[in-house]
Specification:
Blueprint (H helix, E strand, L loop, with lengths): L21 H10 L1 H20 L18
């Protein structure tokens, strides 16, 4: 069995009202750019499937700009 690292869990207790965002900011800064992008893309895919029932796709529009003859 390969030696895989165990996930690190980070928790907090919230009492008396809505918490500030410090915990969230520290958590995501610790994850790194690749993990943030992966999580954001996962949300994009989930929303597209929920709203439209399909996988997201790239926009395929082409525009040609041509100078007018004087």
């Amino acid at each position: 069995m390969p030696n895989t690292p165990q996930p690190v869990w980070k928790t907090r207790v919230v009492r008396n009202g809505f918490p500030d965002r410090r915990f969230d900011v520290e958590f995501w800064q610790g994850q790194g750019d690749e993990a943030i992008f992966r999580a954001a893309w996962e949300m994009v895919v989930m929303v597209e499937e929920f709203k439209h029932g399909r996988q997201p796709r790239f926009q395929r529009t082409i525009t040609r700009v041509q100078r007018r003859a004087s």
